[in-house]
Amino acid sequence: MVSLADLQAAFRTDSAQNLEYQCQANLNLYDGPDSDRLATQAATGRHLQILDLAEVSGFGRPTIPVCLCEDDYPGWLRLEDIAELVVATVPYQAVRLEAQEIQARLPEAIAFAYQAMKQPNYYLWGGTVGPNYDCSGLMQAAFASVGIRLPRDAYQQEAFTQPIAIAEVQPGDLIFFGTPEKATHVGLYVGDQTYIHSSGKDQGRNGIGIDRLSESADPVSQAYYRQLRGAGRVVASYQPQG
C-alpha cells in the first residue's frame, strides 16, 4: 500500500515522474479536483501515473490528478484511495494484436456484454467496472475482458475504429450515435440488425439492453436510430501514446 507521505517522498526524486502505480481495488476517478462527478473507473490491476507533482506536495485539495496507462485517460483520484495503490513492479506494456486475432476474440466480448445485461444494473455515467456501466464503459469492459484495449469515450472509440458502412456491419462491430459533429453514444452490434448497449434514463433503458437498427415501433430504438452516425470495426488494441 502507498500513503500520501510515500508519494511525497517518491516525488522528491527525479525518476518519480515515470513511476507507475497499480490499483489493488476498483477505484473511481473524477473529472475535476472537487470529485463531484465520476469520469471513469479503474478496475483492480490497472496502472496509473500521477500527473502533477505539485498536487502531491499538498495544496489542501482532496484529490490528485492521474492518468490511466492503458488508455491515456486522465482523472482525479481521491487522496483516501491512495491506500489502494502499490508501486507497479513491471510497467504496463500494451499487447499488439493482429486484426485476425481480434476477430477470433469477438464472440467472447459479445458474451461478456450479454452476461453483464443479465446482472441487475443501471446506467452509470463514468461506469466501466460493472455491474453499472455507461455506453463506452461497457464497450471498454467487454473488449478488455478478452485482452483488447479501447479508448475510453464514444467519440474516441469512433476515431480509433476502422469506419465501415452500416450495410456491412458484423457481430462485434461498434455502432455510433450522436450529432453530426460528435459521437456521444456507442453500442455493440450482435447481429440481426440489433445491438447491445448501456443507455441512460432520459432516452434509453437506464441500463444494458438490446435495440434495433431501424425505425422500429420501439421508442428507444427509434430515438437512437435517428441519431445514427455510422459503424466502426476494431482492428487493433489501443497503444498508449506516452
Task: Describe the fold and architecture.
This protein is α+β, with helices and mostly antiparallel strands and 242 residues long. Helices cover 23% and strands 27% of the residues. It contains six helices and 13 strands. A six-stranded antiparallel sheet has the order 8-13-9-10-11-12, sandwiched between helices. A five-stranded antiparallel sheet has the order 6-5-4-1-7. A two-stranded antiparallel sheet has the order 2-3. Strand 9 (174-178) and strand 10 form a beta hairpin. Helix 3 (99-118) crosses helix 4. The radius of gyration is 19 Å and the shape is globular. The model has no long low-confidence stretch (mean pLDDT 93).
What are the key terms here?
single chain, 242 residues, alpha+beta, 23% helix
Q: Major beta sheet, specifics?
A: 6 strands, antiparallel
Order of helices and strands: HEEEEHEEEHHHEEEEEHE
Q: Uncertain spans, ≥5 residues at pLDDT below 50?
A: none
Q: Could you tell me the strand content as a percent range?
A: 25-35%
Q: Class by helix and strand content?
A: alpha+beta
Strand adjacency order, main sheet? 8-13-9-10-11-12
Distance between the termini: 25 Å
E-strand count? 13
> How would you sum up the global shape?
globular
What is the CA-based Rg, rounded?
19 Å
